[in-house]
Amino acid sequence: MTTSQPDASVHVRDLKKQYAVHEKEPGFMGSLRSFVSRKTKYVEAVGGVSFDLAPGEVVGFLGPNGAGKTTTLKMLSGLLHPSGGVAKVAGFEPRRRETAFLKQITLVMGQKQQLIWDLPALDSFLVNQAIYEIPDEQYRATMREFTEVLSLDGILKKQVRKLSLGERMKCELAAALLHRPRVLFLDEPTIGLDVNMQEAVRAFIRDYNERYGATVILTSHYMADVTALARRILVIDSGQLVFDGDLARLAEQGRGGGKTVRLKLREAVSAAHLARYGHDVKVDGLSAELTVPRAEVSARAAKLLADLDVADLTVEDPPIEAVMAELFGAGERAEKEVVGG
Amino acid sequence: MIRKTRVLFATRFAEMAEYRAEVIIWMLSGTISLVMMLVWMAQAAAAPGGQIGGYDGSQFATYFLSVWLVGQLLVVWVGWELDFMIRQGTLSPKLLRPLDPMWPEYAAHVAERFVRIGPMLVLLVIFAALSGASFTRDLWAYPVTLGLCILGFTCRFLYEYTLGLLAFWTESSTSFSEVAWLLYAALGGLFAPLAFYPQWVQNIAVWTPFPYMLGLPAQVLAGKATLSQAGSGALILFGWVIFFWFVRLLVWRLGLKKYGAVGA
């Protein structure tokens, strides 16, 4: 289906993907057995996820390795045909890979290159300009903008194979966004980059989203990427969506819905003593940390200040990394084998 | 469309030019027809009357050198390329662009011919001088040979592309390309002119595209085929091109459903 003015929204209902995986025992005998009769099992990578994204929304898509994040992104960008369910991206059915759809989207996959290895990045940009039929004026304006924001000056005429990882990643991003897509699927866009480069890429994505109102789905192992860019978080585990809400609510779920109280003490106090005020107590010399129920934060903090010789007290949401670890640690992950054979 | 073609060709030419040394070495490695030339020339020299099947040493030289020349213009590696791209997942970035990934590959092959042509003509002159080969003086034969080569290359490109797509289903599709090469070489006339084969082989060969891709343009260059034979060969090749075009489309569409986008 086509629409003349795609609205950059994403609509997903009960999306599923099963893979056929061939199994072989190790060693020579295993190879022989596999030669005569090959075992195939079916693995459910995505087991029916549903969500909607409004145009311009930036969403963090989180989950442990093998949870189904990348598979979902591949289905939404048309690379994989779903085994079931419905996906609509900017009004299109991704699996049909219509030209108008492909001009609206991009998928950045870590260090997976779309740049031509033996030529300067500029050549790849020119190829993309021709393929996406970008008018000269728009191409020049976009290049000026990207060169400035991503500091591309001086690297565009160097052979891609001679660029550093960070330089190459910046060029990959520029190539992927040259046609000004309205829906961005970013799969680990900062992987392997140093802290400064990660920050530069984040700033670029934030700027692009604000400037063009693009819808962004972002997966990353760096929580800083997610907290810097996304308000809403989708958490997927074992192919199932286990959380869909804003970042603050996700943080609230951590530590059993509690908040973290950090103390600097003037006199040492035992962990057993601090356990009267909260749980998950950690003591390190004159520093201590404990979790208290969210609804009782004020009362417990006041009691701590009254009872103990406290030099400093801070109340924080638990770190998002801890929340994620808790979420993923809670359930045993197992591949769902729906058919054996 | 013109812009896309121009940019694709220019970029792929620049890319191929980076590998010019490899292209020349690869060209030198594709000399089976020249080895066959030496074998058949020696046999003809030893035969009564200095001829075998109506070919003397010089005519064998002309035929096999023509086969070598045509073979150089028909080189296709897209099957290996696709096999790698599908198995390694590097097809994914190409699938995200609004252009059939076949076209950049086709452009790369055409661009490579332009890198190849200079050293190829130099080698041709040297080999011709050494072997005593003499090509036809009919001027019509040269554009006709070129036309047959373009059709033959397109035909080979399309069936090799289709074979490469079998990597969607198999662990590796390159073995299919090996079998296809054997048929192309044997029935195309790489080892001997088709007329030297048993009649039943010739009867089968005419139902394949191979004799028209390789042997026919070589015979035109050698002055052993008429314009009307070339014309009917071109029509048959055109038919094969259309056939393989649709087969490729069908296999492509079915294959995409199987694509696992591995590692991408």
What does this structure look like?
The complex is a heterodimer of chains A (341) and B (264). Chain A is α/β, with parallel strands linked by helices and 341 residues long. Chain A has two domains: 203 residues, P-loop containing nucleotide triphosphate hydrolases (Rossmann fold); 64 residues, YebC, transcriptional regulation domain (Alpha-Beta Plaits, 2-Layer Sandwich), CATH 3.30.70.980. Helices cover 35% and strands 29% of the residues of chain A. Chain A contains twelve helices and 14 strands. The longest helix of chain A is centred in the middle third of the chain and has 18 residues. Chain A is globular. The two termini of chain A are 38 Å apart. The C terminus of chain A is likely disordered. With 264 residues, chain B is an all-alpha fold. Chain B has one domain. Chain B has twelve helices and two strands. In chain B, helix 8 runs parallel beside helix 12. Chain B is globular and about 65 Å long.
List the helices and strands and how they pair.
The complex is a heterodimer of chains A (341) and B (264).
Chain A: E1 10-23, H1 27-36, E2 39-53, E3 58-62, H2 69-76, E4 84-89, H3 99-102, E5 105-109, H4 121-131, H5 136-150, H6 165-177, E6 183-187, H7 195-212, E7 215-219, H8 223-229, E8 232-237, E9 240-246, H9 247-253, E10 258-265, H10 271-274, E11 279-284, E12 287-293, H11 297-307, E13 310-316, H12 320-330, E14 337-339
Parallel strand pairs in A: 3-7, 3-8, 5-6, 6-7
Antiparallel strand pairs in A: 1-2, 1-4, 2-14, 8-9, 10-12, 10-13, 11-12
Helix pairs in contact in A: 4-6
Chain B: H1 2-18, H2 20-29, H3 32-46, E1 51-52, E2 55-56, H4 57-73, H5 78-88, H6 92-95, H7 102-131, H8 141-165, H9 174-188, H10 199-205, H11 210-221, H12 227-258
Helix pairs in contact in B: 1-7, 2-7, 3-4, 4-7, 4-11, 5-8, 8-11, 8-12, 9-11, 11-12
